[in-house]
Amino acid sequence: MTDTPSYEDARDELVAIVQKLETGGTSLQESITLWERGEELAAICQRWLDGARARLDAVMQVSEPAEAAEALADEPGPEDPSEHRAPTDSSDSARKV
């Protein structure tokens, strides 16, 4: 089993893949392989972002600074983005600050 890359590492690899695909000059098979890896990396990045959003939402729901610090400490850290799930509320109201 391979380790999940950090958000930054996954993003950087995804950018490199996109640039290579845009440049062209790869065989069809190599392009497909790159595309599949890009999809994997995009999903990893999304899990990281979803986890970060969930942590921020948890903090925003807490009124006292001490409670906010405790809420962040109780949440799983970014070491394992597979523990993070997308918030069930898909409205944009959570994004308003």
Please describe the structure with a list of short key phrases separated by commas or semicolons.
single chain, 97 residues, mainly alpha, 0% strand, disordered C terminus
Topology:
Blueprint: H1 7-23, H2 28-60, H3 65-74
Helix pairs in contact: 1-2, 2-3
Gyration radius over CA: 17 Å
Distance between the termini: 39 Å
List the helices and strands in order: HHH
The share of residues in extended strands comes to under 5%
Q: Work out the number of β strands.
A: 0
Describe the largest sheet: none
Structural class: mainly alpha
Helix content range of the residues, please?
A: 55-70%
Poorly predicted tracts of residues = 84-97
Count of the separate structural domains: 1
What's the overall average pLDDT, rounded?
Answer: 80
What would the principal axes of the Cα set say about the shape?
Answer: rod-shaped
How many helices? The count is 3
Q: Could you characterize the architecture of this molecule?
A:
- This protein is mainly α and 97 residues long.
- It has one domain (7-79).
- It has helices at residues 7-23, 28-60, 65-74.
- The protein is rod-shaped.
Brief write-up:
With 97 residues, the protein is mainly alpha-helical. 62% of the residues lie in helices and 0% in strands.
